[in-house]
Amino acid sequence: MNLTKISAIARVTFSDLIRDRVLYNILFVSIALFLIALLTAQLSVLSRDRIVIDFGLAGQVLSLSFVALFYGSNLIRKEMERRTLGIALSRPCSRFEFLLGKYLGLVALIALDWLLLTLSFLLIVGNFTEASWANLSLSLFAGIFFSLLEALVVAAFAIGLSVPTSKTLAIFVTVSLMIIGSNVTQWREVISKIEGGTLIKVLRWATYFFPQFELYHLGTQLAYSVPVGFEQVLLAMIHTAFFVSLMLFIGGVSLRNKELLS
Amino acid sequence: MMIEVKGVSQVFRRGFFMKSQAVLKNVSFSLRDQRITGFLGVNGAGKTTLIHSMVGLRKPTQGEVLIGGQSVQLKEARKGLGYLPERPYFPEHLTAEAFLKYLGTLSDLSRAEIAKNTDLVLDRVGILHAKRRELREFSKGMLQRLGLAQAILHDPRVLILDEPMSGLDPIGRKEVRELILELGRSGHLVFFSSHVISDVEAICDDVICIHEGQIVRSGVLSEFFSQDESHESRRTEIAFQGLTEAMIQSFSRAAEIKSVTPIAEGFRLEVNSQNLVETLVVEALQKGARLLWVTPNRPSLEKWFSENLKKAPEKSGNTQVGSIQS
Description:
Number of domains of chain A: 1
Largest sheet of chain A: none
Oligomer: heterodimer
CATH superfamily of the largest domain in chain B: P-loop containing nucleotide triphosphate hydrolases
Order of helices and strands of chain A: HHHHHHHHHHH
Shape of chain B: globular
Helix content of chain B: 25-40%
Mean pLDDT of chain B: 83
Largest sheet of chain B: 6 strands, mixed
Distance between the termini of chain B: 8 Å
Strand content of chain A: under 5%
Shape of chain A: globular
Number of helices of chain B: 10
CATH class of the largest domain in chain B: Alpha Beta
C-alpha cells in the first residue's frame, strides 16, 4: 500500500465531489430540517428542547447517510462509465489502493459535511432552545460523533457493494441493511418468540452478523440524559472499523477480479 | 523482447443465458524496442479488448501479456508503460498541471520529477500555454494532446495508444502522427491501433492486422501491402496542368493508364504501378506539363479486408513483428 498514491486519489476524488451541486442541495435541505425542528418544537407544550435535539440529530444522520449512499454507490461506477479508471489503473497502482483512495476522498467529504452540519446544529441548539448551551452534554456530542461513524459504515457498504453489483442494487441492499441494523434487537426478540428448529436458530445467529446500526442511535439515552460510557464509544468505533475494513476488502477483491471495461 | 502477447483469448458472456462470445482467439505476437507498430482492424475486430489486456486492465480468459518478461498484471511491469485510451475522459475540474501531478504520483514520480516532466511533456505536445487551465475549457484536440502528454509523462519505454488520431481534424492528425514518429525515433516502443490505413502507412515500421479476434496478417510495413493479391491498394492518382488528350495518348505506356478524367486545371490520371508513376511524371514534365499532385489512393480498411483477407487462411501461433528478432 502506497500512502502517497492513496492520498493523491483521495484528493482528486474530494475535489471532484465537492463541486457537485447535489451536495449543496443536501446541505441546504438538512439545514432546513433543523429549522423545521425548531418550528415543530414551538408547537409542543412540553420538552421543546428534546424535539429540537431529536429532530436535528435525525436530520444530521439522514443527510450524512444520504451523502454516503448517493456518492458511495456511484464512486467507482462513475469511473468505470467515464473510463477514467483505465488511465489510473494502467499505472503502477493497485486496485486496492485505488478503492481506498476513492473511499478516503468520500470520507473527507462526509467529514466536511458533518462538520458544517454539526456547527449549524450546535448553533441552533445553543441559541434557540430553552436550556440554551446547557443542552450541549457529552451524550449529545457522542450522538453527533456516532452520526459520523454511521455514515462511514454506510459509505463503505455502498462502495463495497456497488463494485460487484450495480449502483441501484448497492443502494437497495445498503438501505435494507440500515433498516435491519437499526432494529436488530427487535428482530432478535421477534425471532426468539417464534417456535422453530434450525432455521430460527440460524436466523437468530444471523442477526449478530448484520451491521448493528442501532449502536449509533442514542435516542432514548439522549432523551433521558443517560450518560454515554467510554465502552459504548469504543464499541461503536470497533464496529465501524470492522465493517469499513470488511466492505473495503470485499470491494477490493471484487474490483481486482472485475471486468472494468466492456 | 519488450512486449509478448502469448496465446491471449478472451471470452465474454453476454445476455440472459450468458452465451459465450470469443472476442480474441489465441492471439500471439511480440514487439521490440524502438519500433512503431500499427494495429489495424475494423470496428469490433478486438483491438480495444486486446489493448486492455496489454495494459493490465483486463485479465485474459487464456494466455498472458508480458512486459520486459513480467506479467502486466504486476505493478512493477506497468512502471514502464504509457497508455492512451480511446476517447479519453479526464476529470474536468482539474487543471492540466494538477491532472499530470495526480498521474505522476500514481507513476511513482517524485515531486521534482513531476514538476520537471509536466512542463516538458506539455511543451512537447504543444499545450504548455494551457498548463493552468481547467480541462473543461480544453478543445477535443487539446484533450487528445493531453492524453498523449499523460502517456509519456513518466518517460515509459512502451507506449500503447488506442486510436490516438480518432476525433481529430486533419491538422491534429498530422501533429499526432509527427509526435508518434518523434517518440519512435527517441527509442520508445509505440503500439497504436487504428482503422485508417493511411495513418498506419504514414508512420509505422510494422503492422499487425486483426480480424474477428485473430491476427490475420503482420509484418514490416514495406512488405505488408505488397502482399495483396489485388492492385487496388496501390492505385495512385496523378494530376497535370497543360496536357492535352492527344499528349496523354502519346505516352509510351499510355495503355497501362487505368483512367483519364478531365478536371478544371487539366487531367487526372489513375495508375496501378509505382513504376508507371515515375515514367508518366518524367514524360509529362518533358512535354511541358505542370504537375499538380500525386496522391496514393488507399482503400478503406473494410474494402481492403474484403479484398485481401477474407479468403486468406487464418494464421495461428506466434507472430514476431519487427526486423530485429531474437
